[in-house]
Amino acid sequence: MSATLQRLASGWADVVFPPVCVDCRGLVEDGGPYRHLCARCASRLEFIRAPHCPTCGHPYYGAAEEGRRCEHCVTLEPAFREGRAAVLLKGPARALVLALKYHGGEYVREDVAAVFRRAPALLAFVRGAQLVPVPLHPRKERERGYNQSALIAACLAEAAGGGTRPAPLLRRVLDTPTQTALDRRTRQENLKNAFAPAAGGTLNPALHYILVDDVFTTGSTLNRCAATLRRAGALKLDVGTFGHG
Q1: pLDDT for 48-72, tens place per residue?
Q2: What is the mean pLDDT of residues 201-205?
Q3: Residue 19 CA neighbour count, 13 Å, CB half
Q4: Which helix (H) or strand (E) holds 8?
Q5: Element holding 227 (H helix, E strand)
């Protein structure tokens, strides 16, 4: 289907079935920047601006002191250089991620891309890099129908432009329990040997790689992935996520 026909089909679908806000469940008005966030909820998105932690990307509040230790990643020994995130994972941002991860909400990828387009510092950070999505185990990806981190990486690459492109260079080899209810230490134990380089993938030490995930919580998953990529030869390695929290 051509892009023009896709827009017409989408417009007709919105007339017959008006889009509903994923956060408040109200109707989404025409002409707004988001298709699945109403204007009121969209105004509550908390974009991350400087100053922020260089390791995990969480904003600093108040006076920013050089060398300040961030409470969100203070115990992390990062295998990557720096990390950035677009928004805090609260309210409408959290609703978008929940829709994408747990409710078959592949349709919110348009809104994810729209959020990225309003995060210029993140776009500048990733532009021209190879975006490596955090992989799902094949069983979980079959159940979900897609890897949400791969969709997010595609949205981020499209928003950034400048040669930025997804690069699926990792695979998940262990089907570990969900990380959601685990503390930092248990998460780290849970992820031992969970990742490996993708078959046939090659890493160039001269290229810039950025690990992409939906959210930076404790950093355990991203750090395990980063360690795997670093052992495989990725020397210029950073992290970028949709949300932090």
Answers
A1: 999 999 999 999 987 655 556 799 9
A2: 92
A3: 24
A4: helix 3-16
A5: helix 220-231
